[in-house]
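From the pipeline queue, job 12 of 40. The input is one protein chain; the requested action is below.

Action: predict structure.
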Amino acid sequence: MHILTRAEEEVLFKTLKANALKECDPIVKEFVECTHGKLVTVLWGCRAQHKAMNKCLMALTTQADMDKLKIQYLNDLADGKVDHAQLQKEQRLKDEENKKKSKSNGPGVH
């Protein structure tokens, strides 16, 4: 039995969020279009679009959805469809990239 590492869970969560954004793209675009030309007034001027966007995203990023994605990943891993070593290597590279970016931003900037 394979237990997911924190890095694997993060990758799966990012995948879940990306999938939700793709599904909710038309609603997200409506919100973005509403915000154009607004500063503070976006708070009440785009309230309906913001609520619709959040409702869509929240509906597609539930714990049940995350659990399904984890099960699919573990099944793919067991079937040899996922290269665990390759995923770890990719995660290390991303971590190193993020460290370099944070160092280049200077102290106190994240």
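Job complete. Helices lie at 6-23, 25-35, 42-45, 47-59, 63-78, 84-104.
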